Every structure is written in C-alpha cells, then in structure tokens.
UniProtKB/TrEMBL annotation:
Pfam families: Aminotran_3. The keyword Cell membrane does not apply. This is Aminotransferase. One of its GO terms (molecular function) is transaminase activity.
Length: 458
C-alpha cells in the first residue's frame, strides 16, 4: 500500500488510504470533523471561519438546533414515500411556503435533490409547455443562455451553461440546440456606456440571436438572476432582466431564472428577482433552500405554465425517485422558518451593505483587485494582473485556487472562481457567509481575507 505523504493543498498534510474519489484524486482535501455556527474544525486542529458557506449554501450556519430537531421529528413521522404514490405534510408545507413567498405568482413546486436537477427539470418543463399549448409549437427545441454562466453538471444543464473548461471534455455530447449571448458584465463589457444604452445593446443582441436561430424555435432564455460561480457575483444592471424578458415575450419564449446560487435570501430578498421588477416563468432554487442540512433543490412553476399543463396532459413528463423527499422537505421548511423568525433577510441587507463597504475600503486600492462587486451577503473580488488594462493573470497560475489555499492558511474559507473574463482566463474569489452573521464576524472576514490576499499578492 502506498503510504507516501501527500501535501494537502497547502494545509498541514496527513494521509489515509481512502476509497473516496476526491475532486483531485491525488490530493485529499482537509478533513472536517466538526462544525458549529460559522466555524469548521479539522482533524489536524485547524479552526476555519466558513465565509463561503460551503458553496454559498450554509444560510444559517452550522449545527442549528432547530433544524436538527425538525429532522429528528420528521424521522419519527415518515422518512420516505414514493411521490408517484403518496404526498406528505412535509412536501405540502414546504411547497405552500414557497408559492406563498412569491405572492402566488409561482403556483407549483417540483422538489428535487440539487440545483442541477432543478435546472434539468426546468429545461424539460419548458419543452413540454410548448407541446401542450392549445396550438402546440413542437418546433420549439432550442434554448438561449449566456456566456460565463453556470447551470449545473448533467448533460442538459451543462449544455446551457457556458464554462469552456467544464464543458470541453463533454462538448461532443452536449446538445447543439443551445446558443449563448453575452452576460451582463459592466466591469469589462459595458464600453463606458450608460446603463440604458448597455441594456439596450444586450437586448438587441438577444433579439438578434432569436432572429438568427428562428424565433419560433426557441423554448426559453435562461439566465442567473445574479451571476454567481463563473462570473463572480455580478448584479444585473437596472432594467437588464426586464429588457431580456421583453424580448422573450415578443417571441413567445419562456423566461427562466436560475436562482440556485443567488436565491433564497442570499441577495437580501428571498427571491433575487424581487429586486428586478420581473417574475420568471420558471425558477430554479437550491443551495440556501436546505442550507446544507439536506440535499434539496426545486423548480418553481409560474401559474401560466401550470395552467397549460393542467389543461393539457395534466402530468409533467419527468420524475425522480427522491422527488419531494419528506426528510429534505422538513429540513428545508425549518431552515426557511428560521430565516423568517430570526428576521435574517433584514440582516443580509444590513450586514451585506457593511461587508461591501468594508471590502471596498480595505481592498479597492490594491493593485491586483480590479473590481469588488456584489449584493446582500454575496460578494466577489476580481483579481487582475494589471489594474489599468484589466489584464487577467494566466490560467496556469491558478490564482483563485491559490487564494483559496491562502485563505485556509489564514483561517478562512472562500470560494475560488476562474474563467471570469471569457470562461478560460480570469480569477475571482467569493465570500458568501451565513445570514446570521454579525458586524464583528464581518470585521474578521475582511481582516482574514486581506491577510490571505496580501500573503500571495503583496
Ligand atoms: C446558478 C447555478 N445553477 C445550478 C447550479 C448547480 O447546482 P448543484 O451544484 O446543486 O447541482 C449551481 C451550482 O453552483 C449554480 O450556481
């Protein structure tokens, strides 16, 4: 048996023979043995502030007693039923909470186990919608998405996403029925235009794409309400999503908002679209829905889409064994009630403002920080080699990942992102802490982030 020590990504290494297929097969990540509140504790004694919330997941911190109790109570009631045969109070309660949170605009909820599955379901729902219209439009098979987006990792969700590095290996297997338009990325792509002109240009680009592929062939346009993993916390320019929805409406296509990362309170409102004056036809959520206490995602379906299926076949042609899992629903329901009862969305807005201000105050003068942007408790710093020209670091330098490692060395976990500029080059790091954070916690996050950054970039 090979017992050669392998360094663990810059932390104190230890080696165990493992059956786990790690993300990096030859590099076991640090082992977390306990978590509580905002902290993770590793087996070699590190105490790490979880400023990433995993991957922007842990909305109420770790080890919340209320959620633990709710999961245990659900185990006593019913742990699993097959959704083809039965429903449960847990699934009913969570779905009602979610539809009510949209003021009834989204009138049905399809509960799955991840963000990827929610996106996959959205794509299928969009297609089915057009086959069940009173005048079916079966020629609609295409999707228009955006460059530098991420929507998940199954073949369908990967096809609408646009991260060349993640797609490359599978490119020959991905649907050719997807095309990509520019993201809304003012830092690099607005050419100094005012917001209105920039939005008009992006809307025209979408219009042109509809015309190029044939407006009556498109099922939907899909976008992250606020760009997350690939672009790094870019809020939409005012009016952008409204303008994109208007183009969809003009051509009878659906408007899908992917809120897997930015939704469920992360940006200061439960649904990120609430701040944009638009309502989607289909909406995906995950991460903050279960906040890490369970694997759960969901597709929210607008009443107008539901009405078409209701009058059509009356059945969504898609299902999964763990759909509507009662344990997952009970956990997510308690997470959401905790967010409500502890008034955490107000805290996201207040602490988010403080976090953004402090990051800018301490780091915007740094020669390698090109942009600091975000909303709510979802902030990114884009790293550049040259601040004047915005030239990025080379992809080979793996700067974002090295920043993540530097963070661990300084007792903080941050999310690294690459491909920011064009899907290949460009680096950013994201902080996305729990909603119940205090101002003191934020002081600590910024202090450790700064130390980590300066340890690598001076
Ligand atoms: C916007 C968006 N959509 C979909 C996904 C995929 O979700 P999951 O990793 O839960 O499958 C992600 C994950 O980061 C995401 O950020």
């Amino acid at each position: 048996m090979d017992k050669t020590p392998i360094a663990i990504n810059g932390t104190n290494g230890h080696v165990e023979q493992s059956s786990v297929l790690y993300r990096q097969l030859r590099q076991p990540p640090p082992k977390v043995v306990r978590s509580k509140g905002h902290y993770l504790y590793t087996d070699d004694g590190l105490e790490i502030f979880d400023a990433s919330g995993g991957a922007a997941v842990c909305a109420i911190g770790h080890g919340h007693d209320r959620v633990k109790k709710a999961i245990a109570a659900q185990l006593d009631e019913i742990e699993y039923v097959y959704s083809l045969f039965f429903t449960t109070s847990a699934a009913e309660r969570l779905s009602t909470l979610l539809t009510e949170s949209t003021g009834g605009q989204m009138s049905r909820v399809f509960i799955v186990s991840s963000g990827t599955e929610a996106v996959e379901a959205a794509l299928k729902m969009a297609r089915q919608y057009f086959t069940e219209l009173p005048q079916p439009q079966k020629q609609r098979t295409r999707f228009i998405a955006r460059k530098q987006s991420y929507h998940g990792n199954t073949l369908g969700s990967l096809a609408v996403g646009s991260h060349p590095a993640r797609r490359a290996l599978y490119e020959p297997m991905l649907s050719a029925n997807v095309s990509h338009v520019s993201p809304c990325y003012p830092y690099r792509e607005s050419n100094g235009e005012d917001d209105e002109t920039y939005v008009a240009r992006l809307a025209q680009e979408l219009e042109d794409e509809f015309q190029r592929v044939g407006p009556d062939t498109v099922c939907a346009f899909i976008a992250e309400t606020m760009s997350g993993a690939t672009l790094g916390c870019v809020p939409p320019v005012p009016g952008y999503l409204k303008a994109m929805k208007a183009v969809c409406e003009r051509h009878g296509a659906l408007f899908i908002l992917d809120e897997v990362m930015a939704g469920m309170g992360r940006t200061g409102t439960l649904h990120a679209w609430e701040q944009e004056g638009v309502v989607p036809d289909l909406q995906t959520i995950a991460k903050g829905l279960g906040a890490g206490y369970t694997s759960i995602g969901a597709l929210l379906v607008n009443q107008r889409v539901v009405a078409v299926l209701n009058q059509g076949t009356g059945a969504f042609m898609h299902s999964q064994t763990y759909q509507g899992n009662p344990l997952a629903c009970a956990a997510a329901y308690e997470v959401q009630r905790t967010i409500q009862d502890e008034n955490l969305l107000a805290n996201v807005r207040e602490m988010g403002k403080y976090l953004g201000e402090l990051l800018k105050k301490r780091l915007s003068d740094h020669p390698h920080i090109g942009d600091i942007r975000g909303r709510g408790l979802f902030w990114a710093m884009e790293l550049v080699k040259n601040k004047e020209t915005k030239e990025p670091f080379g992809a080979k330098e793996q700067l974002a990942w090295n920043m993540h490692l530097a963070g661990l060395e300084h007792g903080i976990c941050m999310i690294p992102g690459n491909g920011t500029v064009d899907g290949v080059v460009g680096d950013h790091i994201i902080v996305a802490p729990a909603y119940n954070i205090t101002a003191q916690d934020i002081d600590l996050i910024v202090e450790r982030t700064e130390k980590a950054l300066r340890s690598r970039l001076g």
